[in-house]
Specification:
The complex is a heterodimer of chains A (819) and B (340). Chain A has 819 residues and is an alpha+beta fold. Chain A is built from 21 helices and 41 strands. The radius of gyration of chain A is 41 Å and the shape is elongated. Chain B has 340 residues and is of the alpha+beta class. Chain B folds into 2 domains: 2-84; 104-339, Bira Bifunctional Protein, Domain 2 (BirA Bifunctional Protein, domain 2). Chain B contains 11 helices and 9 strands. In chain B, helix 3 (37-45) packs antiparallel against helix 4 and helix 5 crosses helix 8 (222-237). The chains are: A alpha+beta (819), B alpha+beta (340). Chains A and B meet through helix 7, helix 10, helix 12, helix 13 and strand 27 of A and helix 5, strand 1, strand 2, strand 4 and strand 5 of B. Bound molecules: zinc ion (ZN).
Chain lengths: 819, 340
Amino acid sequence: MKVPMIWLRDYLNLGVDAESIAKLLTNAGIEVESIDSIGEFWSEQIVVGKVVSIDEHPNADRLTLPTIDFGSGHQTVVTGAQNINIGDVIPFAMEGATLVNAYSDAKELTVLKPTRLRGVESRGMVCSAAELGISNDHEGILILPEDAPVGSKLIDYMGGQVLDISTKPNRSDCLSVVGVARYLSGLLEQDFRMPKLMDEIDESAELPDLQIRIDDPVVASRYAVGYLWDVKIAESPFWMRRRLEAAGIRPINNIVDITNFVMLEIGQPLHAFDWDKISGGVVGVRRAREGERITTLDAQERELIAADTVIFDGSGPIAIAGVMGGLATEVTRTTTTILLESANFDQTSIRRTSRRLGLTSEASRRFEQRLSPETAVVALRRAVQLAVEIGAGKGVSLWGDSYPQPAEETTLEFSLSEIPRLLGVEFDRNEVMNALERASLNVVAEDESTMTVRVPHWRGDITRDVDLVEEVAVMIGYDKIPSSLPAGSLPESIPFEYDKRLDEIKDLMVSTGFYEIITYATSSEARLNNLLAGGAAPDDLGIEFADRLLPEEIKPLELLNPLRSDENVLITSAISNALETLSSNLRFNQQDVSLFELGRIFLPRMGGLPIERPVLTAVTGQYVSGSSWNSIREVSFFDFKGIVEVVASRMNLPALEFQPLSHPVFKRGQSAAVMVNGKLLGAVGEVDPNVCEAFSVNEKAFLLSLDVSRLLEMSGGPRPYVSVPRLPAVTQDISVVVDNDVPSSDCVRVIKRAGGDLVESIKFIDQYKGQQVAEGKRGLTYSIVYRDNTKTLTDDEVANVHRRIVRALDKRLNAKIRD
Amino acid sequence: MIDRIEEMAKRALAELAVIQAENLEGWRLKYLGRNGELNGLMRSIGKLPTEDRPSAGQAANLMRSQLETTFELRCAELTDKQDQESSLDVTMSGHTAMLGSLHPVTATLREVRTIFSRLGFRSVVSPEVEWDEYNFEKLNIPQDHPARDMWDTFFLNSDDVPGSMLLRTHTSPAQARVMEQVDPPIRVIAAGRCFRYEDVDASHESMFHQVEGLVVDENITMADLRGTLQYFVRSMFGADREVRIRGSFFPFTEPSCEVDMTCLFCNSEGCRVCGRTGWIEMLGAGMVHPVVLEMAGYDSRRYSGFAFGMGLDRIVMLRHGIDDIRHLFRNDLRFLQQFV
Ligand SMILES: [Zn+2]
């Protein structure tokens, strides 16, 4: 909300500049976002001038030639404005003045230069409010009050600063100038002056019959009305217009201006009905009927629902309560009697209706907050006072009032020991009392350890003693709170630091050359479905896998209000984000793209929140750099398998099994499912070329995807120590030729079984395919380490077991020794 | 005799002049060794007539010292040459280690976690998809409360579930979840992604990271809040940072505050980063609202606590001087590689 300094000064002596006020309010939680200046660019060339004569333009009917007295001389200028008369006091800009170019859309500043208009020279200019940057009003010249001092600089006369305050939802009282001034008076320890209010009752007035009704006390807790007669619609006075404009509200006419002025000043929105257009002598509040229609002030017919609240008269709805008035009872130039509404509506209903209709306004914004029902009458008294004061009409401030359950005064008992308990500092009793009083919280009773405090009606946010502790802290100043560290014992109840385990995995990925990425949680079904471009029907394994890492068969959770249509579901797989990121980086001509993400996917679950499964996804293009200069090498399946093995080893998993994988994302024959104890841990391998294409990756891509929750679940604790061998080992290589479809893991298993305890380890060394082996066969070479931990092995013992292995390989796998 | 000595010396020096480094030792043994030619000649001097011995001995000794000197010079010369031939151009680039990097958000979060862990804070995780109940209601933000406007929310289609699901707008639901699971004392931080329904620009992202902190115990005060956050700010940004707290409002804390630190870039003089105020807004905080404690089943007269929530991305941006939040989630390697 914009609070002009000049308006604040109506209610208290500030004594300090706007910057200090801003600081004080901000520190107290009423945040001043900026200090705007009115007339910041007004130079000395803009002064208060007086029209002393007006001549006709010799060549143009629509132009006139006013002569302006600007204090130190006279000047005749050309103007197209029709609203000035001899004797008017106006803002006058002389050559060199800076003004807003009101004709341009950008509203940029320009410097006034002498010009010729239809043959007559004009060196100066009479200004509109728009040209001065005060408002967008460019319909005529701004007419200043008659007593404005001719010749003085305009900046001195009407420049000023405006505080732009962002009010927190608890402080609806500070959605008004009076509220800010009152709070500020406490902070500054200055006296606050309430604006002048009309008495509630005027016995002498003869008033028409009126019945006020609240048909449903849930939708309105109070409905009060004032009455104005002998109304003359006209322009409101300069001081009122100036304050409205400074606060960002465009002046319209005296009645509309009064309602806006009071809303800004007191915080209570008002609505003026043309009383003569109200039928049946009755005005009330009720819930709307489903399907009921009303034409609002903007000439739109609107259909209402039962959750809306309407104001009605004898004929039907005449306004949507708190949101917009009806066209039928609008105040026009010919209006002479006015019913002035000041009500307290249900916040929720106003909030929902204004949102539903897209009609949020300064008024609806205030109604959505907690307004005090007491303020309703204060606002009526102020409005009628103003109407009489500025000659807009005669009036009675409280013509009718329905207030079925008057709010009770709140008093809170407050234990002084709460201050040190919550703030960690003790304040002197008088200091506390003084702080409360400054916050308009009067101490009505006290004893040794407690104070009883009366909460003023406008501080509906104060409901518990803890709120009083905050008021005391704010008034005394948060800077009085010392610094300490929490004492007491450290909690032991949260044993497992989950993200520390994730860190281990991340560090491992970084050390193998991958860059961590963080992608969005959202995508679209179409983008996720790019993963299915491979199209191959998944086999049994594939289907189980799909449950976990692919969108297939899983309907992703939808956002009800996405920002963009291609970000409208939660990801059910992290692979598409990874491939998209790979693709965009390859497009930037990066050759060596190795990326990983440890993120969450969201798997919908009946009747509950989705499962947020942590997954590790890593991806590269076809090439990565080697470690020497200018070395680029092709990535292979075994690079990725190696990474999986290292991760498994770091997490101390049981033995991994790699099985051939058939899955739409992965290229068949170039990928594997990773199993642990018969459970699927993830998949690794080359990406299906069609999937690459769907993601605009024009080279091979490699991918791994691991279910991190399973990884953590199966992760062993700290590894038990195995004694370092004291006796020597014997290493022997063995090369065999096998059919291509015999997996290496079978050879290893056979070697292990045949070799028994004497085989300490088996290392795969090489694969050979080529002329020296028959078609459909390949050579495999292993290095076997033999060791007996109880005695030194003899050559005979090694030869025996080696022979046993050779026989077993032959028998079980038809594997022949290759020389 | 003297002729023989001179003849030998001439030969030896001629050989030395063209010798290769690997033959130096052979040359030394041949001429100057114990059984070398010079010693042979010396020995034969003893067989000369007595009157000839002094001059021959003198000539032999002279020759020995000349050969030795020349040999040493030649040795030095050849070793130098060898060194020169095998020395490296140390200005050429080093071989790049095959290292990736953590995302700067992760790296910064680790630092944050480390600082708080020194004060005994444990780290917990919390769901990103939440019930309205945890994101709002248990934090003292009932349905239709105007305070809800403080959080623009992405809602999820909740047709099949008994409640309203949303993407958490802050990490504060972790407060309610932790309090639901354990009894005081509590000292935790919970970090992670949050989501706001707002247009993206240089300083706003619809996805961002927060770090939530929660301490609940007997005798926890706002002074503890101030001290803890001051410790954090100074550990993270330097011991000379000043911290100020000022009034604010959050439905789930009372009293509430904003915590600012003196600007890193201008030493509080005022600059573009701090909006010419000299202060940088760090986080929102406050004493846990008694309603929130009570909803968790705690006795709000016995226990008190403080909570805070800070924007992690902003801390990342401040640390690295990143001017546009959108860089963080574009995952451009040209950006990421700067943090190896
Ligand atoms: Zn600065």
